[in-house]
Amino acid sequence: MREFRVRASAAEDLDEITRIYQHYVLHSSSTFEIEPPKLEEMARRRLAMLQAGFPYLAAEENGRVMGYAYANAYRPREAYRFTVEDSIYVSPEAAGQGCGGALMASLIAECEKGPWRQMLAVIGDGGNTASIALHRRFGFREIGTLERVGYKFDRWVDTVLMQRGLKML
User: Fold this and answer.
1) Euclidean distance between CA atoms 22 and 33, whole angstroms
2) 100, 103, 119, 144: least surrounded by Cβ within 10 Å?
3) How far is CA 50 from CA 19, 59, 116, in A?
4) pLDDT at residue 134 above 90?
5) Rounded to two decimals, what is the model's pTM?
6) Which residues contact 161 (CB under 8 A, 6 or more apart)?
7) In the sheet that 155-165 helps form, which strands lie side by side, from edge to edge?
8) What is the pLDDT of residues 53-100, one digit of tens each?
């Protein structure tokens, strides 16, 4: 396994973050976006999450961003305010090398410092076994599957829902 340093993301990371996310938009069903967002849109999204108080992390190796993760509101309605949804994206060249685990551990730790009590994973594509296994390793349990809710790459795609509690302070 390789060693990745996880830290708060910076505006300077956005070129690499955008490149990583664009790969997943174009080549996987882990996100249901069809058109890759531009750098400006990724910057806007990151800033909105940070201004709302959510963690947005980057994993680097030798000074290069190899993955990123963030938590965001699960839903906008007030009653959901103690529930977050996680997102983790790893550069293809770092996949299976410990980057996702490093990001997940740090993201959970950051969320446990906040007011949140539940973390959900909404995993695009029921065949995304790597993401499902990563979440299981960190204590998530499958709570359901939304069948054929997305359409990408000329096929219907499921979404797997997973959940874990966060430490009560």
Assistant:
1) 10
2) 144
3) 20, 17, 15
4) yes
5) 0.96
6) 120, 121, 122, 123, 142, 143, 144, 145, 146
7) 5-8, 56-61, 64-73, 83-90, 118-124, 155-165, 141-152
8) 999 999 999 999 999 999 999 999 999 999 999 999 999 999 999 999
User: Going by C-beta distance under 8 Å and a sequence separation of 6 or more, which residues neighbour residue 122?
Assistant: 85, 159, 160, 161
Interatomic CA distance for residues 125 and 77, integer angstroms = 26
Q: Which residues contact 149 (CB under 8 A, 6 or more apart)?
A: 157, 158, 159
Per the prediction, the chain carries an average pLDDT of: 96
- The CA-atom distances, in angstroms, between 137 and each of 105, 131, 133 are 10, 10, 6
Contact 34, 46 (CB under 8 A): no
> Per residue in 76-86, pLDDT tens?
999 999 999 99
Residue 55: half-sphere exposure toward Cβ, Cα within 13 Å: 27
